[in-house]
Amino acid sequence: MPEPFDPSLLAPLVLAYVGDAVFELEVRAELVRAGVADPDVLHRRAVSQVRAISQARAWRGIRDHLTPKEAAIARRGRNAKTGRHPRGTTSEEYHDSTAFEALLGYLYLSGRADRLKEIMALARIMGEEEGPR
Question: 13, 40, 73, 105: which has the fewest Cβ within 10 Å?
């Protein structure tokens, strides 16, 4: 019998790696559910929502709604040494997006689908309220 898997023991950038994929899949699925059928439009809209700036905005909206354990995981992701950040983003935006991704990766790997769904919904709501950057 394999030992229990504890995602909180993974490196924060590993959690962020998984969380980035989870977020992109959720965004793509949401666009398809909304009726977007043109592949070029799907791609453009997904890219605009999955980029670091959008993830940082989502992070700023949800960070006050986390459990202490979730906040600790996200803090580890935010403080991880990433080396560089994508063009067009500030270091702060990139660290915020990494916190968001690490949290999503942790929730996904923990099998906490209900909480992941809550966080994704909250991130969408908060992102809409904040408006464009």
Answer: 40
- Reference 107, options 26, 2, 3, 1; nearest CA is 26
CATH number, domain containing residue 37:
1.10.1520.10
Range of the domain at 29: 10-130
Domain membership flag for residue 2:
no
Judge whether 1 lies within some domain: no
Is 6 considered catalytic here? no
CA 47 vs. chain centroid, Å, equals: 13
**pLDDT tens digit sequence for 47-96:** 888 888 999 999 998 999 999 999 999 999 999 887 777 777 888 999 99
Phi and psi for 58 in degrees, rounded to 5?
Answer: -65, -40
Cα separation, 35 vs 4, whole angstroms: 40
Annotated active-site residue in 20, 38, 96, 114: 20
Domain count within the chain: 1
Percent of the chain with pLDDT strictly greater than 90 = 67
